[in-house]
Amino acid sequence: KDITLVEDIMNYEPVVLHSADTVAQCREVMAQSGYTKFPVLDDKERLTGMVTVKDLAGSTSDEDTIGSIMS
After folding, report:
1. How far apart, in whole angstroms, are the C-alpha atoms of residue 66 and residue 63?
2. Which of 16, 19, 51, 60 could pair with 70 in a Cys bridge, judged by C-beta atoms 3.0 to 4.6 Å apart?
3. Which pLDDT score, from 0 to 100, does residue 1 have?
4. Please, which pLDDT band fits residue 71 given cuts at 50, 70 and 90?
């Protein structure tokens, strides 16, 4: 039986967003990267949540911060 190790499929340099980034910035990163989910970091580079395309759909303004709409 073949075994797949996490290190064989993981991304060592993931695309991340920061809680102060805007919805507009997130849309741009999504379009450029092709990904629809991103880890969100605070100003100290700590994981604070995830933002998804579904979160963006609920946003009322491109100027909303990711921190205010993320899951």
Report:
1. 9
2. 51
3. 74
4. confident
Going 15 to 18 to 19 to 23, the CA torsion angle's sign is: negative
Q: Does the predicted model carry a pTM greater than 0.85? A: no
> Residue 56: CB partners within 8 Å, gap ≥ 6?
23, 26, 27, 30, 69
Integer angstrom CA distances of residue 12 from 8, 15, 16: 10, 10, 12
How far is it, in rounded angstroms, from Cα 71 to Cα 64?
14
Q: pLDDT (tens digit, 9 = 90+) per residue, 44-61?
A: 999 999 999 999 998 999
Query: What are the helix (H) ranges across the chain?
Result: 6-9, 23-33, 53-57, 66-69
Place of tokens 């100003």: 43
